[in-house]
Design a protein that fits this description.
By secondary structure, this protein is α+β, with helices and mostly antiparallel strands. The protein is built from three helices and four strands; from the N terminus they run H-E-H-H-E-E-E.
């Protein structure tokens, strides 16, 4: 398995389960009427294309929730959350942070 395939697999697992990652929601997302449904839409997201996923890592997604545009994005930090991860394909040295935000909060 290549490093890219490993990152994609780790991202997909983390996004689908919200396990082995930290999930951060912005104030705009927190104020939506049905937060649970929005987070479920993030978990179920599968519309990856060459345009929105050019590196094939499944690290970003965008969708419309009623009248708002929602983004989600992974960031990779070291285990102490002090610096960027030296290797996002290695969960032993990486803390995944999944941020869910309104597009206008990006």
């Amino acid at each position: 398995m290549t490093a890219t395939e490993r990152v994609r697999d780790l991202n997909d697992r983390a996004r689908r389960t919200f396990q082995n990652c930290r999930v951060v929601i912005t104030p705009g997302i927190e104020q939506l009427d049905d937060l649970t449904a929005v987070l479920r839409a993030v978990q179920l997201f599968d519309k990856f294309t060459a345009d929105n996923d050019p590196y094939a890592e499944h690290d970003f997604g965008a969708f419309h929730w009623h009248d708002v545009h929602v983004f989600w994005q992974f960031s990779y930090y070291d285990v102490d959350l002090q610096q960027l991860s030296p290797d996002p394909s290695d969960p032993a040295v990486t803390t995944r942070v999944l941020t869910v935000m309104l597009a206008n909060e990006y």
